[in-house]
Amino acid sequence: MSAGDATGSRPIRVLLADDQHLVRTGFRVILEVEDDIEVVGEAADGDRAVGMTRALRPDVVLMDVEMPRVDGLEATRRISADTDTPGGPAVLILTTFDRDDYLFAALRAGASGFLLKNGTPEALVEAIRVLARGDGLLAPDVTRRVIATFARPGGGSVVGTSPEAALGDLTPREREVLVLVAGGASNAEIAAALHLGEATVKSHVSRVLAKLGLRDRVQAVVFAYEHGVVRPGG
Questions:
Q1: pTM of the predicted model, to two decimals?
Q2: Is 52 helix (H, G, I), strand (E, B) or coil?
Q3: Bridge partners of 13?
Q4: Contacts 24+ apart (CB under 8 A), 183-192
Q5: For 42-71, b where at least 16 C-beta lie within 10 A, e where not — what string?
Q6: Which domains, and CATH codes, for the chain?
């Protein structure tokens, strides 16, 4: 499915939130050459990002972490909890700081993706398309750190769902889907593995997220490793 399909016939609407004007300009230059992406606004601090999200209803917010007035993590919390913008937008955290505390705080705040600013323009564009489709995204090295942290005893928690009650609500098929999601499989790959249609897989994924009280596939990966549904190397 193309990004255009994910948001109807219109382009993916993106809001840029970064306190550095040159950084925002660079992101705009990268994104505006893409036919399926439209930059709808820029915010220089987290408070402004929250307000512009409510006003502009973007599909994806590119969020810096360290910004004046309100930082990107708090802005992400407010956007995720905002009942005026149900179901979105997806927040993609972009930072120059490769720090685990930022990563896990971003996941707890409700971010759907986390990338470092030293990545390629192509990776940024693809990340936006992935989030616009409703999927979560972590850079491969970030995924390894998440797994390493949450797979070990006492590794912490991103989501507050009671695992026993929530997992007990899953059907055997939904549990299979959760295992494949935790392995990084796309809907198409899950469909092929389970001999299902992609629309059916999408419905299963949505029900899994709803039953577990999770925001997106990123939290599903964390949940699955944290609660032993899957294990590293398994």
A1: 0.71
A2: helix
A3: 38
A4: 183/230, 184/143, 184/221, 186/135
A5: bbbbbbbbbebbeeeebbbbbbbbebeebb
A6: 3-148 (3.40.50.2300), 157-226 (1.10.10.10)
- For residue 198, how many other CB atoms are within 10 A of its CB? 15
d(CA 31, CA 42): 13
- Copy the structure tokens of residue 204: 């299963």
Residue that the structure tokens 């390894």 belong to:
144
In this structure, are strands 137-138 and 7-9 parallel, antiparallel, or unpaired?
unpaired
pLDDT confidence of residue 117: 85
Of 40, 28, 213, nearest to 222 by C-alpha is 213
Share of the chain above pLDDT 70, in %: 79
User: What residues contact 62, with CB distance under 8 A and at least 6 apart?
Assistant: 14, 15, 16, 17, 18, 27, 92, 94, 128
Q: Give tens-digit pLDDT for 77-117.
A: 999 887 665 567 899 998 887 777 777 788 778 888 888 88
